[in-house]
Write a structure and sequence with these properties.
The chain is of the alpha+beta class. Helices cover 32% and strands 24% of the residues.
Length: 136
């Protein structure tokens, strides 16, 4: 196996282990939009890992709404409507939604004239492939 293949395998393994991705930061380096693993329970109350998109720590729904989620809420306290809107089954799905959340945030900032909030995208266009791996 070539060194490039070894490096690709290692990157893929690392991505599989990652539990959080920062997609955008504020100019002070503070995370703005993140994607992270969130544990939960399926309909049969078995443990399951889903993914969530967060803006300033608050979940961002498929409809781009946000909700304050108490960190001490038990997974069983989240109903099916919450899970359907604020959770994603795959990392890739959550990352794509996270990118839409960054775009929506930038559009809102621009329309409100809040140019003092600088957002840095933490991925390069074309840098992430469909399977979540990065291309140099």
């Amino acid at each position: 196996m070539s060194d490039q293949n070894n490096a690709d395998a290692t990157l893929t393994e690392l991505l599989a282990l990652a539990s959080e991705f920062t997609l955008a930061t504020r100019d002070n380096g503070r995370p703005l939009i993140t994607v992270r693993k969130v544990p939960g329970l399926d309909s049969e109350r078995k443990p399951v890992i889903r993914w969530g998109v967060f803006r300033d720590g608050e979940p961002v729904g498929r409809d781009l709404s946000r909700v304050m989620e108490m960190t001490d809420r038990l997974p069983s306290a989240r109903d099916e409507a919450f899970i359907a809107n604020y959770r994603f089954n795959t990392r890739e799905e959550a990352i794509e939604h996270g990118k839409r959340a960054v775009d929506a945030f930038e559009a809102a900032v621009t329309s409100e004239g809040l140019t003092f909030i600088v957002v840095e995208r933490c991925w390069r266009d074309g840098g992430m492939t469909q399977d979540g791996t990065f291309q140099p």
